[in-house]
Design a protein that fits this description.
The protein is mainly beta and 140 residues long. It contains no helices and 9 strands. Bound molecules: zinc ion. The site of zinc ion has 8 residues, from loops.
């Protein structure tokens, strides 16, 4: 029986009815970072709290990855089956920019400032059949 496993621990709530990305927010200066860190990137403060990020934001910048990334790029794809994909930064309410893959790779359908929402979907399969769940942004 295959199961679904998150691509990395602590990146988002999983399993969850409504999964959410997880950030750390500094209790001293208020700066949030994703992925969550044990200390603040801005002031080096040690008092950080984990919080769930909103599921919607706006596209801050983006590009299209047109060739297969070098190892350790882990996916089910080979050089023959590789499909270009969009990648971008999405600015979420609360002042966090999150880099992630986009579900859209057509430049005509992407523009800076558009509304995006995070979705959680299979990213690749492990050798044992488990589905590895990652996060993606899609036009909202
Ligand atoms: Zn801080």
């Amino acid at each position: 029986m295959s199961k679904q496993v998150p691509i990395a621990a602590g990146l988002f709530t999983w399993p969850a009815a409504r999964p959410a990305l997880l950030a750390s927010r500094c209790e001293d200066c208020g700066v949030a970072s994703f992925p969550a860190a044990e200390s603040c990137m801005a002031c080096s403060g040690q008092h950080v709290a984990i919080e769930e990020l909103p599921n919607r934001g706006t596209l801050w910048t983006w590009t299209v990855q047109r060739f297969m990334p070098k190892s350790p790029y882990a996916s089910d794809e080979t050089a023959e089956t590789f499909q270009p994909y969009g990648v971008g930064y999405v600015e979420l309410p609360g002042g966090v920019r999150v880099e992630g893959r986009l579900t859209e790779s057509d430049p005509d359908k992407l523009r800076i400032g558009m509304d995006m929402e995070v979705v959680f979907a299979p990213y690749r399969h492990e050798a044992n059949g488990d589905e590895v769940i990652g996060f993606f942004f899609r036009p909202a």
